[in-house]
Fold each of these.
Amino acid sequence: MNAPPKAISGVSTFVDDRIGAGNFLKRNLRKIFPDHWSFLLGEIALYSFIILLLTGTFLTFWFKPSMGEVTYTGNYAPLYGVRMSEAYASALHISFDVRGGLLMRQIHHWAALLFVGGMTVHMLRIFFTGAYRKPRELNWIIGILLLSLALLEGLTGYSLPDDLLSGAGLRITQGVAQSIPIVGTYVSFFLFGGEYPGHDVISRFYSIHILLIPGILLALVSAHMILMWVQKHTQMPGKNRTDKNVVGAPFYPAFMIKSGAFFLFTFGVIALLGTFAQINPIWLFGPYTPADISAGSQPDWYMGFLEGALRLMPSWEINFLDHTVTFSVLIPALVPLGLVMTGLALYPFLEQWITGDRREHHIADRPRNNPHRTAIGISGMTFYGILWLLGANDEISANFHVDLYTTTWFGRFAIFIGPAIAYWITYRMCIGLQRKDAEVLSHGVESGVIKRMPNGQYIEVHTPPAEDIAAHIRGKQEIPVLESAEDGEGIPPKGARSAIGRLRAKMSEAYGTDRVPLTDGHHEEAHEEEHAGVGAGDRKELH
Amino acid sequence: MTEQNEYPESSRVPTRVLGTPPADAPIVDSDPIHAPEGVPGVIPQDPVKARKAERLVALLFLITFLAGAGFIASYVIFQVGTIDRTATSNYTLGGTLALALLALAAGLTVWVRQIMPKYNLVQERHEMRSDDETREYVGETFLQGADESGFVKHRLLRRTLLLAAAPLGLAPLVLLKDLGPLPGTALRHTVWGAPTKDGKPRRLVVEGSGQPIRAADFNSPGGILSVVPEGYEEDLNALAKATLILLKFRPEELKSGTNLNWTHDGIVAYSKICTHVGCPAALYEQTTHHILCPCHQSTFDAADGARVVFGPAARPLPQLPIGIDEEGYLVAKSDFKVPVGPSFWERGDAEAEARENAS
């Protein structure tokens, strides 16, 4: 083709005459996007969100967010004639009387699980590769907000159908709200329009679920995308890749089509799940009544860690000046969530404070190359994971024939010991992997060729690593360490004189010191005898 | 665009097939503008492979077409109505939809990977911060504007503006007040304490059937019933506080934690609402007399005043004083002496108060 077809050039001329879009397209059509499998994780969340908006809109056409009582007369025979709320009746109507209704409901639920799941693994990828570092701290904070809002969105969503399971979740939410000191009773009465369960909460959660939170999510997702676009994506270390460039495929045409395909893959897999993997079969649970519950009630997966925290907590309640403070609810409801979310939000700034690193970073770290960060991350995952696992301790107890209280006691200790063990193991693994890297650079890789030396000794011939692998390894960046050494007269630098300053300097040294410096492993000629000790060379210059 | 092809000699560059143009030659000779020749980092595909891939892509797109048509057909053909018919409709609709989406996705992927060139383009990054000159200009403009506006100079203007904003900012919060009534003492009472229409004590009725319970009929030790107040069988607000579990014991099984004055012939009534976060404590183990809440596994000893033996709950399930009316049916003698359900700030040491009132 030598000229664009008339249909396209006509429209684009019209648009460009009016808003000058040409300049934007000139800069952005060939915007470069680097390639790595882990960069797709966030896209899963993005596409799940789009699917949620589409299927959610479909569901609103029939769902009636009302707690008014009706007698069910729909197609699901086992509940025929049963008194229930209009919300539950309309959710049954969607499932059994609307063609494709059950499919859309199940796709909506699966997409929600994948939405939070995608966000979580994407967030872990960002954390472990240090992609939150300057200049991306703002986008990191937006991400944490998105994750927190998604939890709230999920909670308000699965409370809507008003079946026995969703009501149990709502009851726990109410019990937690009521336990907040000073304002708890008022919060609960205002949220539920009086005493629990009242007649208002579903219509209120409905407007929060379909308007307020999705609106904020949409705005934040857009901001997230725009910042990513403006700052350009990070890239993994590799040949010719630096902090000053970005290497990859252009937005038009390759990245565009790739992303479209990935959206369709995500949608296709969620459609498969929604078709063949039954989820939240509300018709089996029956209508909600505060007098009943079924054993083995579980929340959606992303609430599991809060559920586990509630189960682990020993009973502890005090009377404080004639008022009740119930730590057995407050601590599990607030501390794990607070620790995880606040810790994540502050991490970029704490790291900057400790390392004194104010540079821009566009090359992602390999997790092994920042052992303390990776260990902290795995430690946090262990903390979360134990709580999450213990959120299902009744199922574990029933399926694996373990005493129920033993699982609780296990969790009460594991929640403290587990993260510490995980920290140590991860740290050692990172150092081990770094040593392996250093060895590959200085020794080369095993060629599989055994050679006999004149003196009778057998050795295996090592060959230099492939160019791209070597470049990937050499992409390791040093972590700066704060200057804390005393000068000639025994006076430490200004920042390191106070107690906090000394602590900061100590942490900086522990955090940043490179335990396994890469040797300069240039292999101009293939060395046949490689016996130099790992790490014997000079520290590799990184800049 | 400074750097070129990352793998000049690697196998990722297609080897040349006899009779085809060299890998770096334009695919279509007559297209001098868009030919990738001379564009470093754009590595075209082998045309033979690309043609083969095209056939595969076409097949996949065709599958999408058929599956899409199948989706529409399923919508028309398979009606809902019974559980089985809903299942069939769900499987056909979902199956065709998933197939259409996945085939389309696979087609696009093959297109990108085997027909489009491999890209290894390089773009420069620029530091995010603006240069000093710009910063200085913006700073000066800001100060100039602030001066021009008079916001700095006119103190009265500045202060009254802030004053004006304060109540407006609070207005949305004030508007939320009518979301709910104030709690008052609502959490301290249940309908067990409210008098019935004819002034008689309120009967205990079985949840679900609404049958009143004759004490003489509830006579097998180890028996358990879920009980609601007569007249409030379907009032969810009332049930959220007033639901009971009713247990029958042999007299020697009861321990000191249970208030015997509030039992009738070994029949004890506890609040079913867990004192942790309010789930119904619905599981009962006869041999140990343990009541277990399935939500967070708070465990209560029913023979000993429902004291907590395990789990996060901090207080026993409150016991309801019960007796019988002249017809022999179980009734509530009064309301609970302490608030039921989860803790709340205003609750205070209700147990101590109750003891004081009793003595």
Amino acid sequence: MNSIERGFSLEIKDVWYRYPGADDEVIKGVSTTVGQGELIALTGAGRAGKSTLARLMAGVLLPFSGQILVNGLDNTDEENREKTRPHVGIVFQNPDNQLVAARVEEDVAFGPENLNLPSCEVQRRVDEAIEEVGINHLRERPPHLLSGGERQLLAITGSIAMRPSCLILDEPTAMLDPLNQHNILKVLERLARKGTTIIIITSAWNELIQFDRLWICRDGKLIFDDTPSKQPGNLKTIRGLGTNTGGTAELAFALQEQGVDLPPEAVTMNEMVKYLCRALR
Amino acid sequence: MLDGINPGQYIPADSLIHRMDPRAKLIVTVISVLAVILASSLSALLVVLIWSVLVARMSGIKAVFYWRSLKPLWVLLLFSFFFRACFTPGKPFIDTGFLMISYEGIISAGWLVWKLALLVLTSAVVTFTTTPLQLTAALEQMLMPLARIGLPVREMSMMVNLALRFIPTLFQETRLLFMAQWSRGAAFTRGRITDRLKGLVPFIVPLLTNVYQRADELALGMETRCYRVGAVRSRMKPLQFKPLDVVAVLSSNLVLVFVLVQRLG
């Protein structure tokens, strides 16, 4: 929480990464900065380097060239990493392998307990995180008896309980049903409003279009770093980059090509419905 | 619910036994196990039985779960009964020339099976009512004096916790993998022994690969949640001996004293 009060910053400076034993670099000279409370969507085709970039930002992988500064501290330094780790949380694609306890409540407490916080503070964080994500009804359940979506929610809750300044999520909604997808995006928006930086890897157009900022990765490079929907020019660029835009956006682009004057935000389902209702009346 | 529960796995409930300090549960279990082993008269074994059933009833866990924890051991129980019955000398009950079962043998075998079943029941109460994390926390605190001589007690207890946490997950994975390979025609249960062994290869290889991959990702996941080897961790619910725990430990001691008096008297 302290870092949020002070303001959070993440700077990526010309970062290169190659997996041990591989010939080619997976990340090639990525540079960008992230500020406090930003909602960033990271997208791109398979093997574009999205997950690797996420792991580099979280300090799980170390770049072989370049620097990643968290609140000004170089993350490549072992001593600094211990200080910066609580500030940058990450939720991996497969939640199963992040759950360490045999009860939901105990699992959420695992992170705060590792921070050696007083018992009452651990309990408070656990209660708040569980309440925030809305999984109170699962509190006593063993993780292996939860559905895939519930396990994903639990993994997110475990990270939220650590109160990171920045939370990185690798395809967090991939295993969720539409209702839970909506719920978790609302939770992330609320966290961002409270000052937590959210970076989410997603290929769902409806999700990424709602974010403040969009990163597109291709061949290990960050080829797009801008607002996704506020400028009509950006929408065309994003589409041209071969992202999975989904049915609503494709319909919007087809209508625009036919000369229909659609507002730029009509590429999401809600806005498209609003526009069509107005037009049909 | 039954289908998702494996024998010996934690079952959430709000009972007196669930609320007990895990250290007290471990002490009571050790004393109860000693009482079962040392019981040498019918009255002593009856008292131990009443004590074990009382504790099991107070755990709020349905009897069917205890029955299920005994089920995987039926071969062992049958085997133990048969051998004890056959190799105990005494007045013949069945004598076929090459096989003689005595009256004393049957009584002794029944005695043995009773004791084994009681041991399973006693240990099942702990595992049904205590989460692996509570259990390892108790072990960690009880073994902490050994840390002074350089034993990595915290790391050992975390390893035990993770092993217990992943047993049900690996069970599920094995079951799924078995079904997937079986549906694709893998011969696990038919054909010659060499064919069956060959059939196991496409089952074991992905299973081991998954286990290694899981372990790797788990280590990463723990690291990102600030787990550090050797670091001091706090606890959300610190262990605390309450009056209930003292009563439980004293009661189990009374049972043990009764058994010892019966044995020595």
